[in-house]
Amino acid sequence: MHRETDAPPPTTDRAFPAHCAARSRGLDDMETQLIRCRACPRLVEWREEIGAARRAAFRDWEYWARPVPGFGPPDAALAVIGLAPAAHGGNRTGRMFTGDASGDFLFAALHTVGLASQPEATHRDDGLELYGVRITAPVHCAPPHNKPTPDERTTCRPWLARELELLAPTLKAVLALGAFAWQALLPVLDDAGRQVPRPRPAFAHGAEFTLPALGDDRGPLHILGSYHPSQQNTFTGTLTPDMLTDLLARAARLAGLNRRR
Asked: Which of 157, 172, 228, 261 is packed most tightly, with the most Cβ within 10 A?
């Protein structure tokens, strides 16, 4: 029998993520709780408004319009962290980076390196498999203008913290896609007892540092940064396919995933 203090807060309460994430017994259990979350009113309103209005090209879709969980194997050696689901991408399909141009760019690179079974991701049941990689984000709901607020990032942080904690026994490397992901990741690692350098390493494409082993069962953790595969970056050549493929290949090697085709 649970004590009264163990009862979860309402899904609309800002304390809901912290309470439920900490008590998740595994990634599947965490996902069950995460997709119920309504702790950020602005994000809930936006994701549901987009899901009801829909884009003309997707008018026959039933939008997911809920928090989008991470996906990939529970024993992943590499985590790839984005920003948040796209309004007509993950918010529509229910899977991170699935169904939008950023995802097309990312999955093509993952496939080239040998970390994904196919170069395209169109919907949750398209047969895509990730090999040794888990994809997630610091904010799990689609934000207006692709810009979550710092407060929304903080509210959502317990989900990322618990996801990385559950992956910790096998996790060897993390690739942060963009400054937002980088800035969200470092405090999570700090809180987990990892010795993040001071001053904190600055984000840059190709930035890299290694955190020392933590105890007897947590080996060194390699942290890398890449520009986010947003259309703003890919259309302008700020991030090219070769740039992302090269960084993914390095992250894979550091994680012990030598799968390049």
From this structure: 228
Please give the order of strands across the beta sheet that includes 173-177. Answer: 133-136, 78-81, 173-177, 221-226, 208-211
Give residue limits of the domains in the chain.
14-254
- Check: CB of residue 81 under 8 Å from CB of residue 184: yes
From the list 82, 13, 19, the residue with the least C-alpha distance to 41 is: 13
CATH architecture of 14-254: 3-Layer(aba) Sandwich (3.40)
pLDDT tens digit sequence for 173-187: 999 999 999 999 999
Task: For the beta carbon of residue 149, count every other beta carbon within 10 angstroms.
Answer: 14
Distance from C-alpha of 44 to C-alpha of 47, rounded to nearest angstrom: 5
Q: Express each pLDDT in 22-55 by its tens digit.
A: 999 999 999 999 999 999 999 999 999 999 999 9
CB 137 within 8 A of CB 115: no
Helix (H, G, I), strand (E, B) or coil at 176: strand
